[in-house]
Protein backbone atom coordinates (compact mmCIF):
# COMPACT_ATOMS: atom_id res chain seq x y z
CA UNK A 1 0.00 0.00 0.00
CA UNK A 2 1.36 3.42 -0.95
CA UNK A 3 0.73 6.18 1.57
CA UNK A 4 1.14 9.93 1.03
CA UNK A 5 4.57 11.37 1.82
CA UNK A 6 4.95 12.34 5.46
CA UNK A 7 7.43 13.69 7.96
CA UNK A 8 8.17 11.07 10.59
CA UNK A 9 10.75 10.41 13.31
CA UNK A 10 14.13 9.13 12.14
CA UNK A 11 14.59 5.35 12.36
CA UNK A 12 17.89 3.51 12.64
CA UNK A 13 17.31 1.84 9.25
CA UNK A 14 17.25 5.33 7.65
CA UNK A 15 21.00 5.71 8.20
CA UNK A 16 22.17 4.64 4.69
CA UNK A 17 19.66 7.05 3.09
CA UNK A 18 20.70 9.85 5.45
CA UNK A 19 24.36 9.31 4.56
CA UNK A 20 23.56 9.28 0.83
CA UNK A 21 21.45 12.45 1.00
CA UNK A 22 24.14 14.23 3.01
CA UNK A 23 26.84 13.34 0.47
CA UNK A 24 24.69 14.21 -2.57
CA UNK A 25 23.84 17.66 -1.17
CA UNK A 26 27.10 18.51 0.64
CA UNK A 27 28.54 20.97 -1.88
CA UNK A 28 26.11 23.92 -1.59
CA UNK A 29 23.24 21.59 -2.39
CA UNK A 30 25.13 19.70 -5.07
CA UNK A 31 26.92 16.36 -5.06
CA UNK A 32 29.98 16.43 -2.81
CA UNK A 33 31.51 13.15 -4.05
CA UNK A 34 33.81 14.71 -6.69
CA UNK A 35 35.41 16.97 -4.09
CA UNK A 36 36.45 14.41 -1.49
CA UNK A 37 38.69 11.38 -1.71
CA UNK A 38 36.50 9.77 0.95
CA UNK A 39 33.03 11.37 0.85
CA UNK A 40 31.88 9.27 3.83
CA UNK A 41 33.57 11.92 5.98
CA UNK A 42 30.68 14.30 5.20
CA UNK A 43 27.86 12.45 6.98
CA UNK A 44 30.32 11.37 9.69
CA UNK A 45 30.79 15.05 10.57
CA UNK A 46 27.56 16.76 9.51
CA UNK A 47 24.72 14.25 9.96
CA UNK A 48 25.59 11.09 11.86
CA UNK A 49 26.40 12.72 15.22
CA UNK A 50 22.87 14.13 15.43
CA UNK A 51 21.10 10.85 14.73
CA UNK A 52 23.52 8.85 16.89
CA UNK A 53 23.55 11.10 19.95
CA UNK A 54 19.99 12.48 19.76
CA UNK A 55 17.90 10.30 17.42
CA UNK A 56 14.71 11.72 18.93
CA UNK A 57 15.59 15.12 17.44
CA UNK A 58 15.93 13.83 13.85
CA UNK A 59 13.18 13.50 11.28
CA UNK A 60 12.82 11.92 7.85
CA UNK A 61 10.69 12.79 4.86
CA UNK A 62 9.11 9.42 4.08
CA UNK A 63 8.15 8.86 0.43
CA UNK A 64 5.02 6.94 1.47
CA UNK A 65 6.68 3.57 0.95
CA UNK A 66 8.83 3.64 4.06
CA UNK A 67 11.93 5.12 2.35
CA UNK A 68 13.61 8.22 3.75
CA UNK A 69 14.10 10.69 0.89
CA UNK A 70 14.93 13.74 2.98
CA UNK A 71 15.93 14.47 6.54
CA UNK A 72 16.25 17.21 9.09
CA UNK A 73 17.46 17.43 12.64
CA UNK A 74 17.04 19.91 15.41
CA UNK A 75 20.65 20.96 15.62
CA UNK A 76 20.73 22.47 19.05
CA UNK A 77 20.90 21.31 22.60
CA UNK A 78 17.96 22.16 24.81
CA UNK A 79 14.23 21.92 25.00
CA UNK A 80 12.17 22.34 21.87
CA UNK A 81 10.66 25.81 21.87
CA UNK A 82 7.07 26.61 20.93
CA UNK A 83 6.64 30.19 19.71
CA UNK A 84 3.55 32.20 20.60
CA UNK A 85 2.07 33.83 17.49
CA UNK A 86 -0.99 35.85 16.53
CA UNK A 87 -3.08 35.38 13.40
CA UNK A 88 -0.56 37.59 11.58
CA UNK A 89 3.05 36.45 11.90
CA UNK A 90 6.25 36.32 9.86
CA UNK A 91 8.21 33.21 8.91
CA UNK A 92 11.91 34.11 9.05
CA UNK A 93 14.45 31.82 7.43
CA UNK A 94 18.24 32.07 7.40
CA UNK A 95 20.06 30.69 4.36
CA UNK A 96 23.80 30.45 4.91
CA UNK A 97 24.37 29.29 1.32
CA UNK A 98 22.15 31.98 -0.29
CA UNK A 99 20.18 29.51 -2.40
CA UNK A 100 17.35 31.82 -3.41
CA UNK A 101 13.88 30.40 -3.89
CA UNK A 102 11.53 29.68 -6.74
CA UNK A 103 8.78 29.92 -4.09
CA UNK A 104 7.85 29.39 -0.47
CA UNK A 105 4.60 27.66 0.54
CA UNK A 106 3.65 28.12 4.19
CA UNK A 107 1.22 25.68 5.79
CA UNK A 108 -0.37 25.36 9.23
CA UNK A 109 -1.73 22.13 10.66
CA UNK A 110 -5.52 21.91 10.57
CA UNK A 111 -7.46 22.88 13.67
CA UNK A 112 -7.81 19.80 15.89
CA UNK A 113 -4.52 18.20 14.79
CA UNK A 114 -2.50 17.15 17.85
CA UNK A 115 1.24 17.21 17.07
CA UNK A 116 2.01 15.49 20.36
CA UNK A 117 0.08 12.32 19.49
CA UNK A 118 -0.36 12.22 15.68
CA UNK A 119 2.22 11.77 12.90
CA UNK A 120 2.33 14.76 10.56
CA UNK A 121 1.20 14.08 6.98
CA UNK A 122 0.59 16.40 4.04
CA UNK A 123 -3.17 15.92 4.53
CA UNK A 124 -2.84 17.62 7.94
CA UNK A 125 -1.47 20.85 6.42
CA UNK A 126 -3.51 23.82 5.22
CA UNK A 127 -1.90 26.43 2.94
CA UNK A 128 -1.77 29.93 4.44
CA UNK A 129 0.83 31.77 2.30
CA UNK A 130 2.39 31.42 -1.14
CA UNK A 131 5.19 33.56 -2.51
CA UNK A 132 6.84 34.20 -5.83
CA UNK A 133 10.56 33.88 -6.38
CA UNK A 134 13.27 35.35 -4.17
CA UNK A 135 16.80 36.11 -5.31
CA UNK A 136 19.83 34.74 -3.46
CA UNK A 137 19.94 36.10 0.08
CA UNK A 138 20.82 34.98 3.57
CA UNK A 139 17.59 36.19 5.18
CA UNK A 140 14.01 35.69 4.03
CA UNK A 141 10.85 37.07 5.64
CA UNK A 142 7.45 35.72 4.63
CA UNK A 143 4.41 37.55 6.03
CA UNK A 144 1.54 35.22 6.95
CA UNK A 145 -2.06 36.14 7.70
CA UNK A 146 -4.40 33.48 9.11
CA UNK A 147 -7.77 33.18 10.80
CA UNK A 148 -9.52 30.50 12.82
CA UNK A 149 -6.47 28.91 14.44
CA UNK A 150 -6.05 28.53 18.18
CA UNK A 151 -3.81 26.44 20.38
CA UNK A 152 -0.81 24.29 19.44
CA UNK A 153 0.00 23.89 15.71
CA UNK A 154 2.92 23.16 13.41
CA UNK A 155 3.93 25.69 10.76
CA UNK A 156 5.57 23.86 7.86
CA UNK A 157 7.22 25.76 5.03
CA UNK A 158 8.04 24.22 1.67
CA UNK A 159 11.07 26.03 0.26
CA UNK A 160 11.86 25.28 -3.37
CA UNK A 161 15.49 26.36 -3.87
CA UNK A 162 16.06 28.15 -7.16
CA UNK A 163 19.54 26.88 -7.97
CA UNK A 164 18.47 23.27 -8.59
CA UNK A 165 15.81 20.70 -7.95
CA UNK A 166 16.16 20.83 -4.17
CA UNK A 167 13.43 21.36 -1.61
CA UNK A 168 13.64 22.14 2.10
CA UNK A 169 10.92 21.59 4.74
CA UNK A 170 11.58 23.75 7.81
CA UNK A 171 8.88 23.32 10.47
CA UNK A 172 8.14 25.07 13.77
CA UNK A 173 5.82 24.50 16.69
CA UNK A 174 3.61 27.49 17.39
CA UNK A 175 0.86 28.38 19.81
CA UNK A 176 -1.87 30.63 18.41
CA UNK A 177 -2.91 32.81 21.33
UniProtKB/TrEMBL annotation:
The protein's name is Lytic polysaccharide monooxygenase
Organism encoding this protein:
Streptomyces chlorus
Can you tell which superkingdom this protein's organism belongs to? Bacteria
Entry's Gene Ontology molecular function annotations: monooxygenase activity
Which UniProt keyword terms apply here? Monooxygenase, Oxidoreductase, Signal
- Please list the residue ranges annotated as the Chitin-binding type-4 domain: 72-174
Pfam family name, one: LPMO_10
InterPro entries, per database record: Cellulose/chitin-bd_N, GlcNAc_Chitin_IntDeg, Ig_E-set
